[in-house]
Amino acid sequence: xxxxxxxxxxxxxxxxxxxxxxxxxxxxxxxxxxxxxxxxxxxxxxxxxxxxxxxxxxxxxxxxxxxxxxxxxxxxxxxxxxxxxxxxxxxxxxxxxxxxxxxxxxxxxxxxxxxxxxxxxxxxxxxxxxxxxxxxxxxxxxxxxxxxxxxxxxxxxxxxxxxxxxxxxxxxxxxxxxxxxxxxxxxxxxxxxxxxxxxxxxxxxxxxxxxxxxxxxxxxxxxxxxxxxxxxxxxxxxxxxxxxxxxxxxxxxxxxxxxxxxxxxxxxxxxxxxxxxxxxxxxxxxxxxxxxxxxxxxxxxxxxxxxxxxxxxxxxxxxxxxxxxxxxxxxxxxxxxxxx
Length: 340
Ligand code: DAS
Hints:
Elements: E1 16-23, E2 29-30, E3 38-39, H1 45-50, E4 60-69, H2 76-91, E5 97-101, H3 107-117, E6 124-127, H4 140-152, E7 161-165, E8 168-170, E9 176-177, E10 186-187, E11 195-197, E12 202-204, E13 227-231, H5 239-246, E14 251-256, H6 264-275, E15 279-284, H7 299-302, E16 305-306, H8 312-324, H9 330-339
Parallel strand pairs: 1-4, 1-5, 5-6, 6-7, 13-14, 14-15, 15-16
Antiparallel strand pairs: 2-3, 7-8, 8-11, 9-10, 11-12
Helix pairs in contact: 3-8, 5-6
The structure holds D-aspartic acid.
């Protein structure tokens, strides 16, 4: 049977992808302050998309500028704007996938916030870069292309929020920035990436996770409940706990030693804080492994929550959202941490 000419009159429509730009090094521009100086957030999302040859052959693209900040200046207000805009894109079926360009410093927190507040129906691929847009070794264009490829792929449907860096696809619950300057700056300790972006295909290493519980409601106003992170160290006293409570913290996340441990004087202060109505979550400063309940600390007696596999910065995001959704009892908080 002779091959018929491709149906040029009605070619398959391209997948629709909306790119939401927020700034970061991917949008960075060199600064003369030093040979390596640069300012994040100097290039628009439109300029980023235009700088990647062939992107318009992967998807029908629209670009929206949500912010243009270095992500060390990422804010709760921008989180709410992103979540609300993506929720509308999903509810109104405005696109098949979404890409967010973002700084790398807080990328894992934004990705996790969106993972918690959005349904998983459409892929939301976050990406960034470790070199500014005008660097000779700029990694942004390749990362942006990979993110569009992932967001446009039918295989990504139902996988919700993803992080795409290099040719790796990560789960937002597990990804963490592990290097200050290397181009390969992200890892998921113990679990590794969940998929890969090849030049012409997307591969996932396991089926999409089972449908999660309903997303947490997107808070309508900022600031979100104040949750402090207290970093533990040898010989510390209870002052950081006392100061957090005095500053109005409604939650405290301990970036603890080992399995979420801390000196007894600190545990006593945390106990006192729970009795004052402050939610306490034990996480760890250790980069891999889980924090378990009732090992060296009597969580049941203290009303503490064990963070499981969440690092301190992600445990803080989850606790903020739970508190803003009215979840305050230790048992209910623990269930939510166990289900994430
Ligand atoms: N300062 C970093 C940020 O904006 C730069 C980067 O994106 O790596 O997160």
